[in-house]
Amino acid sequence: GMLAGTSPSIAALSGAGYDVAFQNNSNTLYVWSGVTTNTNQGMWPHTSPSIAALPGGGYDTAFENSAGNLSITYSLGGGVNTILGMANGASPSIAALPGGGYEVAAEANSDQLWTYSSATETGTNTNQGMWPNTTPSIAALPGGGYDTAFENSAGNLSITYSLGGGVNTGCAMAKGASPSIVALPGGGYEVAYQVSTGAVWVYVSSNGTCTSTNLEMAKGTNPSIAE
Questions:
Q1: In the predicted model, is pLDDT for residue 117 greater than 90?
Q2: Strands of the 36-42 sheet, one edge to the other
Q3: How far apart are CA 68 and CA 47, in angstroms?
């Protein structure tokens, strides 16, 4: 059983198969990998975890714990409570890096975008304001680094780059919506997001344009994009 109003996260494993993370109806993080595993990690009610498969096998899962902090669990055992306070009711996004380790993007309790790196075991304030109680989306780049998409405090789609800089696309999002970003193998990225009419739009980094797909979504839901 899942907690109503939450969403699962799925990751394809490098050796075949997949794992799924979800919040069950007792506010606990569970993982399904052929069998259902109770991680015994309490989650903040009505938030959703994010799972990423590691290149060398296994997976890591990021979530808002029951104390309101960002936590990560490891399939190989253990994990970390980063003590980074998240906006209550927000959800993080995790990406496994090709060279090993992971990066997590989350909305802090200051309504700013933060990232957490496994390499340094530290959180970084990007000083980018976010729309309250939304979820960023992070994607690892094939050549290293990562890009993060989010709804900024003005209600527009923005992207930050780990290598420096970023872009405020000026493309208006539905208030309280969350985008989804994917890194392309040949370079660049694409972002899917919902606008106020309920339509799904896509931002393409190669030409810097926002384009409607002419597909309608139920308001209050978010798209997911994959290469």
A1: yes
A2: 9-12, 18-23, 28-32, 36-42
A3: 10
